[in-house]
Amino acid sequence: MLGLAGPLGTALAGAVRAAGGGCGESGGRPLLLVPMPSSRRAVRARGHDPARRIALAAARSLRRTGTACAVVPVLRQRRAVADQSGLGARARRANMAGALEVVAGGERLLDGGRPVLVDDLMTTGASLAEAARALSAVNGGQFPRFEPPPAAVVAVSPLSFEINRN
């Protein structure tokens, strides 16, 4: 995955650019790439954080084309979650419910920007839904100028389209 971070980031930047129509430039609001958090144990085992690494590469690519963009790793796990690999859609949602939060002071980093959640893989969307809930909960659900964040995912399981009816 380390060698793929650059190309995947470039591809992700292209997808974000195409989906957002220059969203990082609209109204002077920067695009904020919010990587999905990995557990400390997973980062130690892998030796890196893939979603963050891909988000950094995507941000570099977006900035090169004039899009105001930053990576803001403001999400963290507030409690342990089970390994999701053997869980179905309903169990994944239950496993992730209430598991993420915005770090102290993270609301300042998000203020005035347009967040885009970045993950390296999506199966059922339970993790991304929980991340969107955590971002929406900032300031008691009264995040200034906040819209529900879109999500940018590098790899999607074919089953996710069946499971979610997307």
TrEMBL record:
It comes from the Bacteria. InterPro entries: ComF/GntX_DNA_util-trans, PRTase-like, PRTase_dom. Belongs to the ComF/GntX family. This is Phosphoribosyltransferase. It comes from Streptomyces purpureus.
